[in-house]
Amino acid sequence: MVRPRSTILAIIAPLAAATAFAASLSFAPGSLGADQEAVSRCTAAGLGVIQNVSGTTAISVTVSSLPSACGGAALQVTVNNQVTSSSGSTTVPAGGGSVTVTLSVPVAITASEQVDLVLTGP
Q1: Residue 33 falls within a domain, yes or no?
Q2: How far is Cα of residue 35 from the mean position of the Cα atoms in its chain?
Q3: What is the pLDDT of residues 39-96, one digit of tens each?
Q4: Range of 87's domain?
């Protein structure tokens, strides 16, 4: 079957136009930047972490041994048992000490749990 020239031109013309547009694009050299920032810590010491339970679920977490340098910081606690994850947050008192963070949803106590603490600020 012989195709008419107009059909062939109709197929080739858009391809040629796309190539011409691509050839007219200009590329300027650019760079990606990287930076390294020192993040101060209010403590490098170990903190005490105790889960407060009701029946077979953890309902809150008490964090102790918070130094006064962490006073005013936001403390976020997350408990994860590989099925359920729940978190809560509070502010560390000015003198440090201990705080109890209530979890938004109770987490069932299992053989393997993960408790994460994040201090932001002060």
Answers
A1: no
A2: 19
A3: 667 878 888 999 999 999 999 999 999 999 989 999 999 999 999 999 999 999 999 8
A4: 48-120
Would you call 6 helix, strand, or coil by DSSP? helix
Total domains in the fold of the chain: 1
pLDDT of residue 4: 62
Q: Residue 119, Cα to own-chain centre: how many angstroms?
A: 14
In a domain? residue 31: no
Rounded to whole angstroms, the Cα distance separating 93 from 112 reads 31
Q: Which residue has the tokens 């994860």?
A: 80
Backbone CA torsion sign across 86, 91, 96, 100: negative
- In sequence order, what are the residues at sequence separation of 6 or more whose Cβ sits closer than 8 angstroms to the Cβ of residue 87? 76, 77, 78, 79, 103, 104
- 12 within some domain: no
Q: Percent of the chain beyond pLDDT 70?
A: 67
Residue 117: its H or E element: strand 114-120
Q: Decide if 27 is inside a domain.
A: no
Q: Are 75 and 69 in contact (CB under 8 A)?
A: no
In the structure, what pLDDT confidence band is assigned to residue 13 with cuts at 50, 70 and 90? low
- pTM as predicted: 0.65
